Amino acid sequence: MWHNLVHESDIKELPPATKKVFLHFYNVSGGKISHPKDHQRFNEFIRYCHAKKVKLNEYQLKMLLVRIGCPPGQAKKLSQIYYYGRELLKAECPYVIQDI
Predict the structure, then answer these.
(1) Number of domains in the chain
(2) Residue ranges of the chain with per-residue pLDDT less than 50
(3) From CA 19, how far away is CA 40, in angstroms rounded?
């Protein structure tokens, strides 16, 4: 299904470089993760936000997605995946995993 393309000027919440990574995901997928490449692009956005310490929480992402046209249910799902990914990346492993 086709959707309207979102432009960098439509997204005030994100720093310029982060907008590019986000739009690489959103403009191709329309906010859906129905193809493996969509999931890969969204994971790249999550990793980028973590690496650059982007100040964007789960609620802010959900509201951003809804504002630019993502259906609310899908926006909620994406924001939950985003939150989980950010939490996973910031957690330190308290033990060493050994080969079994």
Answers:
(1) 1
(2) 1
(3) 17
